[in-house]
Amino acid sequence: MKLKDLLVSACSNLGRSKGRTALTIVAIVIGAFTIALTTGINIGVNDYIDKQINGVGGERQLIIYPKQEQFGSDDGPAVYQEGKSNAASTEQATLTDTDITALKDVKGIKNVKPLIYVSTDYISGAAADKYVFSSAPNMDQMKIDIDQGRQASDKSAEYEVTLAPEYVKALGYHSSKEAVGKQVEIGVTSPATQEQQVVKATVVGVANDSLIQGGRSLINVALADKLLSINQAGMPDTMKTEYMAAVSEMTGELSEERIGSLKKRIDKIGYQGQTVDDEIGMIRSVINAITSVLTMFGAIALFAASFGIINTLYMSVQERTREIGLMKAMGLSGGKIFTMFSFEATLIGLLGSLFGIGLAVMAGGLINQIAMESFLSSLTGFTLIQFSLPTSGVIILIISGIAFLSGTLPASRAAKQDPIEALRYE
């Protein structure tokens, strides 16, 4: 009996007791459905978090700040010391060109640049109204989630802006697509001279809603330099070279140990470093923890279903005892009988996982549609549940493997049947 014949026979045998087989498959479907759906949520949420991270900077980006006095530590508040200044400084420390030069010598980072902040008064567009405008300059490795158009380019000498979605209708445009290519006016004032100037810039794109950007638009380097020059007009030269922070790129392997070691080296020379993951890594951890708990419920359902497979095949072995004896008497080896029953168990797992994932995909599509029209309507670009072929393939393989292992006990019993005793079985 060839392998193909054993597979055909296994498929035929599953149809002998349709009700029992169907109930066992349903149990597998429930487990596969739960695991596929929770995995899809995990993929969807993490994909959105990755988009948010890219909107702040890449995984190699390290933001460096001047070290600040702390009120305490993880061990508790700082102890008051008589005769010493115990008040934390309310004045924000800054970096200078000297600090930037010193940071360039730190092993493990490169491309150290001052992080520039610009202050703007308003923005106006097709409508005559003016709106408070907040912007952030492009940074290396930054890649924001775009709805229409493109990200402002640092290679362009033209003044470019990628608008936050909140400004589209406010500025008089009916849609993000209509806003792309239009000119806007940005009002900027110098604190020193109190002189306000108007700078014209082109909208090259509109971003999707972002939890992190907080309504800030993205401007290219050319526009950032222009706005900064207006901000700094009339200021002393020493104030023009003061920066709130610096941005750098980490080199080498990005292991927790290497990043921790780099932060310690920076700390020793009077600075503190923060990665993008430090800012929102906790969100990812919470989401992963929640989906892991939900996945456990699916695993419990699969565990219960494995007993259903064992019971189904044990009953099948008992009902087909004489048939097994006859096959052995005709020369079929115990190994092939074991293979045939193992095929039956694996097929139950395969069918259950396929139906379960199929239902999860349909349910996911419906949930995504409801979510986008209701509680996720304000988060454009966020697909709550996403599925991937590799992940689905792994789920199918795992469930089929569990089913195979569950079927080994009854399959082994069938393979060990004595043909004479089996033929006598009533």
UniProtKB/TrEMBL annotation:
It comes from the Bacteria. Residues 296-419 form the ABC3 transporter permease C-terminal domain. Residues 21-218 form the MacB-like periplasmic core domain. Pfam families: FtsX, MacB_PCD. It is found in: Cell membrane. GO terms for cellular component: plasma membrane. Keywords: Cell membrane, Membrane, Transmembrane, Transmembrane helix. Belongs to the ABC-4 integral membrane protein family. One of its GO terms (molecular function) is transmembrane transporter activity. The chain crosses the membrane at residues 21-45, 293-317, 338-367, 387-407. It comes from Vagococcus allomyrinae. InterPro entries: ABC3_permease_C, MacB_PCD, Macrolide_Exporter_MacB. It is a multi-pass membrane protein. Its main location: membrane. PANTHER family: ABC TRANSPORTER PERMEASE YTRF, MEMBRANE COMPONENT OF TRANSPORTER-RELATED. This is ABC transporter permease.
